[in-house]
Amino acid sequence: MLKRNDVLLVLGILLTVVILYIVRGLVMSGASSDYIEVRLDGKLIAEYSLDEDREEVIYAPDGGYNILTIRDGKVAVKEADCPDKHCVNKGFVSGQNETIICLPNRLVIKLCVDSDKTGITPDVMAQ
Ligand SMILES: [Zn+2]
After folding, report:
1. Which domain holds residue 50?
2. Do both 92 and 54 map to the same domain?
3. What spacing in Å lies between the alpha carbon of 22 and ligand 1's midpoint?
4. By three-state DSSP, how is residue 65 classified?
5. What's the CA-to-centroid distance between 67 and ligand 1, angstroms?
6. Are 23 and 37 in the same domain?
7. How far apart are CA 83 and CA 100, in angstroms?
8. C-alpha 39 – ligand 1 centre gap (Å)
9. Residues 46 and 71 in one domain
10. 94 or 55: whose pLDDT is higher?
């Protein structure tokens, strides 16, 4: 027969395990957070974390613009002055290595995971 104290002890241990799991889950999700690379004319001009909802206006060299929106870990081009509007029509994307391309403005938005990051650092330094 379990005594009352034993039951409390078991419950306490279970609770601790659950809390540890939740904390670990939060830490892990933070570490593997996704981000986007924004390239204009092939050059990396910005990186934005997908953890934070935001809106950015990207100006193309020839005066065009794209407004990109990050929401709930997804990214979309909300508005653009390009004639074809392919980038806007693509809507929200969130998959790894997905891209939104706006050919008229020579804009490429690529979704990346943190583990890719080391690969692009030398590239950025060289510019
Ligand atoms: Zn476009």
Report:
1. 33-126
2. yes
3. 41
4. strand
5. 10
6. no
7. 16
8. 13
9. yes
10. 55
Query: What pTM was estimated for this model as a whole?
Result: 0.65
- Both 90 and 100 in one domain: the answer is yes
Q: Are residues 39 and 82 in the same domain?
A: yes
The total of other beta-carbon atoms located within 10 Å of residue 48's CB is: 16
In this structure, the answer to whether residues 40 and 24 fall within a common structural domain is no
Position 92 scores a pLDDT of: 95
Report how far ligand 1's centroid is from the alpha carbon of 59 (Å).
12
Per-residue pLDDT of 1-45, as tens digits, reads: 668 889 999 999 999 999 998 887 766 554 345 899 999 999 999
Count the domains in the chain: 2
Q: CB pairs under 8 A, 24+ apart, for 59-63?
A: 60/105, 60/106, 60/107, 61/106, 62/105
Distance 25 CA to ligand 1 centre (A): 37
Q: Ligand 1 center to residue 66 CA distance, Å?
A: 7
pLDDT in tens, 66-119: 999 999 999 999 999 999 999 999 999 988 889 999 999 999 999 998 764 544
Neighbouring C-beta atoms of residue 16, cutoff 10 Å: 10
Q: What is the pLDDT of residue 28?
A: 58
